[in-house]
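Sat 14:20. Reprocessing the chain from the morning session after the first attempt stalled halfway. Input below, unchanged.
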Amino acid sequence: MVLQRVRRMSTKRKRIARGFLLDARGRVSIPFMPSIKKSDLCIPRVAASSYLNTAPLIWSFQHGTRQGEIELLTDRAPARSADALRRHEVEAALVPVIEYQRIPDVRIVPGVCVGSRRGVRSVVLVTNGKELSEVETIALDTSSRTSIALVQIIFREFIRREPRYTSTAPDIEAMLEKYDAALLIGDPAMSVAGGGRRVFDLASVWRERTGLGFVFAVWMVKAHLTKDDAIIRVDWAAARDEGLAHVEDIIAAYECDVPLPRDELRTYLRDNICYDLNEELRAGLELFYRLAYKHELIPRVRPLEFVR
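Finished this time. Tokens:
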């Protein structure tokens, strides 16, 4: 820890400055207030994507009452947030849910998610008019590994066929020029309709086949951390609630990047996306894990473990 330079104090009496005990010459003697731990003095690092659907979860940390509580690292790709958590570069991250089964020693923050009860709008499979049963080749946007796993489960479990998959850059024109279908996620997926294309909302397909909602991402925290670590004391649900109370501010910040009318952006954040990890979404998440194991996308089904 780097200590700020402390001016000398002329008095012979020991004085306190910045939480440290000083001798008469102004030198740091011993730590004062031994109840202060290293974790209290370090700002935890947290990773999240910068898509519109995550904005209500991070607005409080960027613009609201929780500024300075965490060091927030944003990236357009949710998969890279998962990689940062796996490499111990951050203490917590908003991570695609499939990664819970792949990253060792993590816990889920309870009650908060990026999910959908019906149509999500921002995770779609697009074709040039073909039905899903006619699709033989799919170009995959690799930004979210959960969405890739969901596509594979939909085709293996429900459509009963196995297309050929290729990872590509998320460019809808280039993708559909070479492949029957294209997986797109996030903000780019919200404005791909038209031009004779068919857009299959993957949360809607999941709902039709299972009767359940779907969870795309959750906050995850490293399992070895304790209640003494600052990251464990973050109130993620309160941060979400503050963000949802500022939906109009979020829309104003994103409307230049997502070319849709404000009413559609408002409906997306308030109706399409569900930020509450309730019992129905939890049931959908557990079914997703069982099917991922059945189709050999994960090595085992790890029970849900939450931060306490």
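Residues 1-36 form one domain.
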